[in-house]
Amino acid sequence: MKFLDQAKVYIRSGDGGAGCVSFRREKYIEFGGPDGGDGGRGGDVIVECVDGLNTLIDYRYRQHFKAGVGVHGMGRNRSGADGPDKILAVPVGTQIFAEDNETLLADLTAIGQRTVLATGGNGGFGNARFKGPVNQSPRHANPGQEGRDAWIWLRLKLIADIGLIGLPNAGKSTLLASMSRAKPKIADYPFTTLHPNLGVVGPPDRKAGREFVMADIPGLIAGAADGAGLGHRFLGHVERCAALLHLIDATQDDVVAAYHTIRTELAAYDDGLAAKKELIALTKTDALVPEQVAALRAALTAETDSENAGPVMAISAVSGDGLQKLFDRLAGQIDAENDTAPQAGDSTDAADETEATDGQEAQQSADSPGGWHPLQEQ
Ligand SMILES: Nc1nc2c(ncn2[C@@H]2O[C@H](COP(=O)(O)OP(=O)(O)OP(=O)(O)O)[C@@H](O)[C@H]2O)c(=O)[nH]1
Ligand SMILES: [Mg+2]
User: Which mutation among 164, 178, 185, 188 tests ligand 1's pocket best, with the greatest number of atoms within 8 A of CB?
Assistant: First the structure.
Protein backbone atom coordinates (compact mmCIF):
# COMPACT_ATOMS: atom_id res chain seq x y z
CA MET A 1 0.00 0.00 0.00
CA LYS A 2 1.31 3.44 -0.83
CA PHE A 3 2.28 5.65 2.04
CA LEU A 4 0.79 9.10 2.48
CA ASP A 5 1.00 11.00 5.73
CA GLN A 6 -0.74 14.25 4.88
CA ALA A 7 -4.01 15.00 3.16
CA LYS A 8 -6.37 17.94 2.87
CA VAL A 9 -10.05 17.13 2.67
CA TYR A 10 -13.35 18.97 2.55
CA ILE A 11 -16.05 18.04 5.03
CA ARG A 12 -19.64 19.13 5.24
CA SER A 13 -22.22 18.07 7.75
CA GLY A 14 -25.81 17.60 6.65
CA ASP A 15 -28.44 20.35 6.61
CA GLY A 16 -31.39 19.85 8.90
CA GLY A 17 -34.74 19.17 7.25
CA ALA A 18 -37.40 21.91 7.32
CA GLY A 19 -40.46 21.72 9.52
CA CYS A 20 -43.81 21.36 7.79
CA VAL A 21 -46.93 23.53 7.81
CA SER A 22 -49.97 21.32 7.56
CA PHE A 23 -53.49 21.08 8.99
CA ARG A 24 -55.57 18.05 9.60
CA ARG A 25 -58.54 17.97 7.27
CA GLU A 26 -60.71 14.92 7.30
CA LYS A 27 -64.28 14.16 6.59
CA TYR A 28 -66.41 14.13 9.77
CA ILE A 29 -63.55 15.39 11.93
CA GLU A 30 -64.56 18.72 13.28
CA PHE A 31 -61.45 20.22 14.84
CA GLY A 32 -58.40 19.37 12.77
CA GLY A 33 -55.62 21.60 13.96
CA PRO A 34 -51.99 21.88 12.92
CA ASP A 35 -50.14 18.61 12.27
CA GLY A 36 -46.90 19.58 10.51
CA GLY A 37 -43.99 17.36 11.60
CA ASP A 38 -40.42 18.40 12.41
CA GLY A 39 -37.54 18.12 9.98
CA GLY A 40 -34.85 15.48 10.57
CA ARG A 41 -31.40 16.32 11.87
CA GLY A 42 -28.52 16.53 9.41
CA GLY A 43 -25.75 13.94 9.72
CA ASP A 44 -22.46 14.66 11.51
CA VAL A 45 -19.01 14.28 10.03
CA ILE A 46 -17.11 12.00 12.37
CA VAL A 47 -13.54 10.87 12.27
CA GLU A 48 -12.83 7.42 13.65
CA CYS A 49 -9.60 5.63 14.35
CA VAL A 50 -9.64 2.11 12.89
CA ASP A 51 -7.40 -0.91 12.96
CA GLY A 52 -5.54 -2.20 9.92
CA LEU A 53 -4.61 1.11 8.28
CA ASN A 54 -1.23 2.78 8.29
CA THR A 55 -1.56 5.34 5.54
CA LEU A 56 -3.87 8.14 4.51
CA ILE A 57 -3.65 7.14 0.86
CA ASP A 58 -7.44 6.77 0.56
CA TYR A 59 -7.72 10.52 1.03
CA ARG A 60 -5.64 11.22 -2.04
CA TYR A 61 -8.32 9.80 -4.27
CA ARG A 62 -11.35 11.13 -2.47
CA GLN A 63 -11.32 14.52 -0.83
CA HIS A 64 -14.96 15.53 -0.34
CA PHE A 65 -17.01 14.03 2.45
CA LYS A 66 -20.58 15.09 3.00
CA ALA A 67 -22.95 13.75 5.61
CA GLY A 68 -26.58 13.14 4.65
CA VAL A 69 -29.21 15.86 4.94
CA GLY A 70 -32.23 15.56 7.22
CA VAL A 71 -35.56 14.86 5.52
CA HIS A 72 -38.26 17.55 5.75
CA GLY A 73 -41.14 17.08 8.11
CA MET A 74 -44.53 16.11 6.66
CA GLY A 75 -48.22 16.37 7.45
CA ARG A 76 -49.98 14.06 9.88
CA ASN A 77 -47.22 14.79 12.41
CA ARG A 78 -44.62 12.84 10.50
CA SER A 79 -41.07 13.87 11.38
CA GLY A 80 -38.37 13.68 8.74
CA ALA A 81 -35.65 11.06 9.04
CA ASP A 82 -32.22 12.10 10.33
CA GLY A 83 -29.43 12.30 7.77
CA PRO A 84 -26.82 9.55 8.02
CA ASP A 85 -23.45 10.46 9.54
CA LYS A 86 -20.32 10.42 7.44
CA ILE A 87 -17.45 8.55 9.05
CA LEU A 88 -13.86 9.12 8.00
CA ALA A 89 -11.75 6.09 8.86
CA VAL A 90 -8.17 7.00 9.72
CA PRO A 91 -5.18 5.07 11.07
CA VAL A 92 -3.97 5.28 14.65
CA GLY A 93 -1.83 8.37 15.18
CA THR A 94 -3.79 10.72 12.91
CA GLN A 95 -4.08 14.33 13.93
CA ILE A 96 -6.74 16.61 12.52
CA PHE A 97 -5.82 20.23 11.89
CA ALA A 98 -7.94 23.17 10.80
CA GLU A 99 -7.41 24.72 7.40
CA ASP A 100 -4.48 26.80 8.66
CA ASN A 101 -2.66 23.47 9.27
CA GLU A 102 -1.74 24.65 12.77
CA THR A 103 -4.80 24.50 14.98
CA LEU A 104 -5.15 20.99 16.32
CA LEU A 105 -8.77 19.84 16.34
CA ALA A 106 -8.33 16.20 17.29
CA ASP A 107 -5.62 13.71 18.03
CA LEU A 108 -6.57 10.08 17.52
CA THR A 109 -4.29 7.72 19.37
CA ALA A 110 -6.42 4.68 20.18
CA ILE A 111 -8.43 2.34 18.02
CA GLY A 112 -12.13 3.07 18.25
CA GLN A 113 -11.61 6.70 19.28
CA ARG A 114 -14.10 9.02 17.57
CA THR A 115 -14.45 12.75 17.31
CA VAL A 116 -17.23 14.77 15.76
CA LEU A 117 -15.66 17.26 13.38
CA ALA A 118 -18.79 18.99 12.17
CA THR A 119 -22.22 18.59 13.71
CA GLY A 120 -25.22 18.38 11.43
CA GLY A 121 -27.86 21.11 11.38
CA ASN A 122 -30.89 20.63 13.59
CA GLY A 123 -34.19 19.99 11.87
CA GLY A 124 -36.79 22.77 11.97
CA PHE A 125 -39.96 22.54 14.05
CA GLY A 126 -43.21 21.83 12.24
CA ASN A 127 -46.25 24.04 12.83
CA ALA A 128 -47.72 21.56 15.33
CA ARG A 129 -45.06 22.76 17.76
CA PHE A 130 -46.23 26.36 17.62
CA LYS A 131 -49.78 25.65 18.60
CA GLY A 132 -50.74 27.45 21.77
CA PRO A 133 -53.81 28.76 23.55
CA VAL A 134 -53.67 32.03 21.63
CA ASN A 135 -52.54 30.94 18.21
CA GLN A 136 -54.29 27.68 17.58
CA SER A 137 -53.60 27.47 13.90
CA PRO A 138 -50.00 28.64 13.40
CA ARG A 139 -49.11 28.99 9.77
CA HIS A 140 -45.38 28.94 10.12
CA ALA A 141 -42.66 26.37 10.67
CA ASN A 142 -38.86 26.58 11.11
CA PRO A 143 -36.46 25.91 8.31
CA GLY A 144 -33.71 23.41 9.12
CA GLN A 145 -30.29 24.71 10.16
CA GLU A 146 -27.56 24.53 7.60
CA GLY A 147 -24.72 22.08 7.93
CA ARG A 148 -21.17 23.25 8.54
CA ASP A 149 -18.39 22.93 6.05
CA ALA A 150 -14.64 23.24 6.31
CA TRP A 151 -11.38 22.18 4.81
CA ILE A 152 -9.27 20.20 7.22
CA TRP A 153 -5.86 18.59 7.22
CA LEU A 154 -5.28 15.01 8.22
CA ARG A 155 -1.74 14.35 9.38
CA LEU A 156 -0.48 10.94 10.29
CA LYS A 157 2.20 10.36 12.88
CA LEU A 158 2.82 6.66 12.95
CA ILE A 159 2.78 5.08 16.35
CA ALA A 160 5.61 2.61 16.71
CA ASP A 161 7.39 1.40 19.82
CA ILE A 162 10.87 1.82 18.42
CA GLY A 163 12.06 4.35 15.85
CA LEU A 164 15.14 3.62 13.75
CA ILE A 165 17.32 6.61 13.04
CA GLY A 166 20.71 7.02 11.45
CA LEU A 167 22.57 8.32 8.43
CA PRO A 168 21.53 7.09 4.99
CA ASN A 169 22.99 3.67 4.25
CA ALA A 170 23.47 2.86 7.93
CA GLY A 171 21.53 -0.37 7.47
CA LYS A 172 18.22 0.64 9.02
CA SER A 173 16.03 -1.03 6.43
CA THR A 174 18.21 -4.15 6.49
CA LEU A 175 17.74 -4.42 10.24
CA LEU A 176 13.98 -3.98 9.97
CA ALA A 177 13.86 -6.62 7.22
CA SER A 178 15.89 -9.09 9.27
CA MET A 179 13.92 -8.61 12.49
CA SER A 180 10.41 -8.46 11.04
CA ARG A 181 8.48 -9.54 7.98
CA ALA A 182 8.55 -6.07 6.49
CA LYS A 183 10.16 -5.87 3.08
CA PRO A 184 11.59 -2.39 2.76
CA LYS A 185 13.75 -1.56 -0.23
CA ILE A 186 17.44 -2.09 0.52
CA ALA A 187 20.37 -0.97 -1.61
CA ASP A 188 23.87 0.36 -1.07
CA TYR A 189 23.20 3.93 -2.05
CA PRO A 190 21.89 6.69 0.19
CA PHE A 191 18.18 7.54 0.31
CA THR A 192 16.92 4.13 -0.66
CA THR A 193 14.07 4.59 1.76
CA LEU A 194 11.78 7.43 0.75
CA HIS A 195 8.94 6.94 3.18
CA PRO A 196 8.58 5.29 6.60
CA ASN A 197 8.09 1.53 6.89
CA LEU A 198 6.67 -0.32 9.84
CA GLY A 199 7.40 -3.89 10.89
CA VAL A 200 6.26 -6.11 13.75
CA VAL A 201 9.39 -7.42 15.40
CA GLY A 202 9.31 -10.79 17.13
CA PRO A 203 12.13 -12.56 19.00
CA PRO A 204 14.99 -13.56 16.67
CA ASP A 205 14.82 -17.17 17.94
CA ARG A 206 11.26 -17.28 16.52
CA LYS A 207 9.79 -18.42 19.80
CA ALA A 208 6.37 -16.98 20.37
CA GLY A 209 6.22 -14.17 22.86
CA ARG A 210 6.90 -10.50 23.02
CA GLU A 211 6.35 -8.42 19.89
CA PHE A 212 6.67 -4.73 19.19
CA VAL A 213 6.45 -2.36 16.25
CA MET A 214 9.56 -0.80 14.76
CA ALA A 215 9.56 2.12 12.32
CA ASP A 216 12.26 2.65 9.70
CA ILE A 217 12.42 6.22 8.43
CA PRO A 218 14.54 7.77 5.66
CA GLY A 219 18.12 8.61 6.65
CA LEU A 220 19.06 11.99 8.08
CA ILE A 221 22.07 14.00 6.95
CA ALA A 222 23.85 17.08 8.26
CA GLY A 223 21.71 20.15 7.54
CA ALA A 224 18.43 18.21 7.51
CA ALA A 225 16.99 20.97 9.70
CA ASP A 226 17.52 23.34 6.76
CA GLY A 227 15.96 20.91 4.33
CA ALA A 228 19.03 18.96 3.18
CA GLY A 229 18.31 15.44 1.95
CA LEU A 230 14.75 14.53 2.78
CA GLY A 231 15.00 16.94 5.68
CA HIS A 232 13.11 16.56 8.91
CA ARG A 233 9.91 15.69 7.19
CA PHE A 234 9.67 12.16 8.55
CA LEU A 235 11.01 12.69 12.06
CA GLY A 236 7.45 13.25 13.26
CA HIS A 237 6.90 9.54 12.80
CA VAL A 238 9.35 8.63 15.55
CA GLU A 239 8.16 11.37 17.92
CA ARG A 240 5.77 9.03 19.70
CA CYS A 241 8.06 6.01 19.95
CA ALA A 242 8.96 4.67 23.37
CA ALA A 243 12.62 4.78 22.38
CA LEU A 244 14.90 5.44 19.44
CA LEU A 245 17.43 3.01 18.06
CA HIS A 246 20.35 4.87 16.60
CA LEU A 247 22.21 2.77 14.03
CA ILE A 248 25.79 3.59 13.16
CA ASP A 249 27.56 1.93 10.26
CA ALA A 250 30.77 0.45 11.71
CA THR A 251 32.47 0.34 8.31
CA GLN A 252 32.51 4.11 7.81
CA ASP A 253 35.55 6.27 8.54
CA ASP A 254 34.39 8.23 11.54
CA VAL A 255 31.68 6.67 13.67
CA VAL A 256 31.86 9.37 16.33
CA ALA A 257 31.24 12.14 13.80
CA ALA A 258 28.31 10.15 12.42
CA TYR A 259 26.85 9.92 15.90
CA HIS A 260 27.15 13.66 16.48
CA THR A 261 25.65 14.52 13.10
CA ILE A 262 22.45 12.70 13.98
CA ARG A 263 22.35 14.09 17.52
CA THR A 264 22.65 17.64 16.17
CA GLU A 265 19.78 17.08 13.77
CA LEU A 266 17.58 15.59 16.49
CA ALA A 267 18.22 18.58 18.70
CA ALA A 268 17.46 20.95 15.81
CA TYR A 269 14.14 19.21 15.23
CA ASP A 270 12.77 19.24 18.72
CA ASP A 271 14.05 19.15 22.27
CA GLY A 272 11.67 16.35 23.14
CA LEU A 273 13.17 14.10 20.52
CA ALA A 274 16.73 14.76 21.63
CA ALA A 275 15.79 13.93 25.21
CA LYS A 276 14.09 10.70 24.25
CA LYS A 277 15.67 7.44 25.33
CA GLU A 278 18.10 6.36 22.64
CA LEU A 279 19.85 3.01 22.28
CA ILE A 280 22.96 2.94 20.13
CA ALA A 281 24.07 0.05 17.96
CA LEU A 282 27.07 -0.32 15.69
CA THR A 283 25.99 -2.36 12.72
CA LYS A 284 27.63 -4.26 9.86
CA THR A 285 30.10 -5.76 12.35
CA ASP A 286 30.37 -8.85 10.12
CA ALA A 287 32.58 -6.77 7.84
CA LEU A 288 35.16 -6.07 10.59
CA VAL A 289 37.36 -8.16 12.89
CA PRO A 290 36.35 -8.26 16.57
CA GLU A 291 39.27 -6.03 17.68
CA GLN A 292 38.18 -3.27 15.34
CA VAL A 293 34.62 -3.53 16.63
CA ALA A 294 35.83 -3.34 20.23
CA ALA A 295 37.89 -0.23 19.46
CA LEU A 296 34.93 1.49 17.78
CA ARG A 297 32.65 0.62 20.65
CA ALA A 298 35.11 2.07 23.12
CA ALA A 299 35.42 5.26 21.07
CA LEU A 300 31.64 5.65 20.86
CA THR A 301 31.04 4.83 24.50
CA ALA A 302 33.42 7.61 25.48
CA GLU A 303 31.39 10.09 23.41
CA THR A 304 27.85 9.09 24.22
CA ASP A 305 25.73 10.06 27.12
CA SER A 306 25.75 6.65 28.79
CA GLU A 307 23.00 7.59 31.22
CA ASN A 308 20.55 7.98 28.41
CA ALA A 309 21.95 5.51 25.92
CA GLY A 310 23.44 2.73 28.02
CA PRO A 311 26.19 0.54 26.58
CA VAL A 312 26.81 0.69 22.84
CA MET A 313 25.74 -2.56 21.18
CA ALA A 314 27.36 -4.27 18.22
CA ILE A 315 25.14 -6.06 15.75
CA SER A 316 25.04 -7.41 12.24
CA ALA A 317 21.73 -7.55 10.45
CA VAL A 318 23.25 -9.86 7.85
CA SER A 319 24.84 -12.53 10.08
CA GLY A 320 22.37 -12.07 12.92
CA ASP A 321 25.08 -11.34 15.51
CA GLY A 322 23.84 -9.49 18.57
CA LEU A 323 20.21 -9.40 17.43
CA GLN A 324 18.89 -11.42 20.36
CA LYS A 325 20.54 -9.05 22.82
CA LEU A 326 19.28 -6.06 20.87
CA PHE A 327 15.75 -7.47 20.93
CA ASP A 328 15.87 -8.03 24.70
CA ARG A 329 17.10 -4.53 25.36
CA LEU A 330 14.52 -2.92 23.10
CA ALA A 331 11.71 -4.95 24.67
CA GLY A 332 12.97 -4.10 28.16
CA GLN A 333 13.11 -0.44 27.25
CA ILE A 334 9.55 -0.41 25.93
CA ASP A 335 8.31 -2.07 29.12
CA ALA A 336 10.19 0.40 31.29
CA GLU A 337 8.73 3.29 29.29
CA ASN A 338 5.18 1.94 29.49
CA ASP A 339 5.47 1.54 33.24
CA THR A 340 6.54 5.12 33.78
CA ALA A 341 4.40 6.82 31.12
CA PRO A 342 1.10 8.20 32.40
CA GLN A 343 -1.88 6.40 30.94
CA ALA A 344 -3.33 8.66 28.27
CA GLY A 345 -7.04 9.34 28.72
CA ASP A 346 -7.60 9.30 25.01
CA SER A 347 -11.28 8.86 24.69
CA THR A 348 -12.26 11.72 26.97
CA ASP A 349 -12.20 14.36 24.24
CA ALA A 350 -14.39 12.34 21.99
CA ALA A 351 -16.83 11.61 24.81
CA ASP A 352 -17.03 15.27 25.73
CA GLU A 353 -17.81 16.26 22.21
CA THR A 354 -20.55 13.69 21.87
CA GLU A 355 -22.13 14.97 25.02
CA ALA A 356 -21.92 18.50 23.74
CA THR A 357 -23.77 17.43 20.63
CA ASP A 358 -26.57 15.89 22.64
CA GLY A 359 -26.82 19.00 24.73
CA GLN A 360 -27.18 21.14 21.65
CA GLU A 361 -30.10 19.11 20.46
CA ALA A 362 -31.86 19.62 23.77
CA GLN A 363 -31.20 23.33 23.56
CA GLN A 364 -33.05 23.76 20.33
CA SER A 365 -35.72 26.37 20.68
CA ALA A 366 -38.28 27.60 18.26
CA ASP A 367 -36.92 31.10 17.85
CA SER A 368 -33.22 30.91 18.44
CA PRO A 369 -31.40 28.26 16.51
CA GLY A 370 -29.10 26.58 19.07
CA GLY A 371 -25.55 27.84 18.67
CA TRP A 372 -23.20 25.11 17.53
CA HIS A 373 -19.65 25.70 16.52
CA PRO A 374 -18.23 22.31 15.78
CA LEU A 375 -14.91 23.54 14.46
CA GLN A 376 -14.22 25.92 17.28
CA GLU A 377 -14.31 23.62 20.25
CA GLN A 378 -10.68 23.49 21.21
N1 LIG B 1 27.85 -6.46 5.58
C2 LIG B 1 26.71 -5.88 5.98
N3 LIG B 1 26.07 -5.05 5.16
C4 LIG B 1 24.92 -4.48 5.59
C5 LIG B 1 24.41 -4.72 6.89
N6 LIG B 1 23.27 -3.99 7.03
C7 LIG B 1 23.10 -3.33 5.88
N8 LIG B 1 24.07 -3.62 5.01
C9 LIG B 1 24.20 -3.06 3.64
O10 LIG B 1 24.22 -1.66 3.71
C11 LIG B 1 23.57 -1.09 2.59
C12 LIG B 1 22.53 -0.09 3.01
O13 LIG B 1 21.51 -0.73 3.72
P14 LIG B 1 20.06 -0.11 3.90
O15 LIG B 1 19.37 -1.04 4.86
O16 LIG B 1 19.42 0.16 2.59
O17 LIG B 1 20.41 1.24 4.63
P18 LIG B 1 19.40 2.36 5.16
O19 LIG B 1 19.93 2.86 6.45
O20 LIG B 1 18.01 1.85 5.14
O21 LIG B 1 19.61 3.48 4.08
P22 LIG B 1 18.58 4.62 3.59
O23 LIG B 1 17.27 3.98 3.39
O24 LIG B 1 19.18 5.08 2.32
O25 LIG B 1 18.59 5.66 4.64
C26 LIG B 1 22.96 -2.27 1.80
O27 LIG B 1 23.78 -2.54 0.71
C28 LIG B 1 22.98 -3.41 2.80
O29 LIG B 1 23.15 -4.65 2.16
C30 LIG B 1 25.15 -5.61 7.74
O31 LIG B 1 24.78 -5.89 8.90
N32 LIG B 1 26.28 -6.15 7.24
MG1 LIG C 1 16.43 2.38 4.20
Answer: 188
Which of 3, 164, 165, 169 is the best mutation target for the ligand 1 pocket, counting ligand atoms within 8 Å of the beta carbon and taking the most? 169
CA atoms within 13 A on the CB side of 332: 9
The Cα–Cα gap between 96 and 56 comes to 12
pLDDT digits (tens, 9 = 90+) for 28-40: 988 889 999 999 9
Quote the distance between the C-alpha of residue 93 and its chain's center: 3
Query: 181 CA distance to ligand 2 centroid (A)?
Result: 15
Atom 2 of ligand 1 has which residue's CA nearest to it? 284
How close is the Cα of 88 to the center of ligand 2, in Å? 31
Nearest alpha carbon, ligand 1 atom 32:
284
Homologous superfamily of the 162-340 domain (CATH):
P-loop containing nucleotide triphosphate hydrolases (3.40.50.300)
Say which CATH superfamily domain 6-156 falls into. Answer: GTP1/OBG domain (2.70.210.12)
Give the side-chain half-sphere CA count within 13 A for 136.
Answer: 5
Residue-wise pLDDT for 156-215, tens only, equals 988 889 999 999 999 999 999 999 988 999 998 988 989 888 888 988 776 667 889 999
Please report, for the chain, the start and end positions of each structural domain, with discontinuous segments joined by +. Answer: 6-156, 162-340
Amino acid letter for position 14:
G
Q: Which atom of ligand 1 is nearest to the CA of 315?
A: 31
Q: What are phi and psi of 229, to 5 degrees?
A: 65, -135
pLDDT in tens, 27-74: 998 888 999 999 999 999 999 999 988 889 999 999 999 999 999 999
Residues near ligand 1 (Cβ within 6 A): 166, 168-174, 186-188, 190-193, 218-219, 283-284, 286-287, 316-318
CA neighbor of 41 nearest in space, from 358, 313, 348, 306: 358
Residues (pLDDT < 50) of the chain are 344-378
Residue nearest to atom 5 of ligand 1 (CA): 284
Query: Residue 185, class by beta-carbon neighbours within 10 Å (0-12 exposed, 13-18 middle, 19+ buried)?
Result: exposed
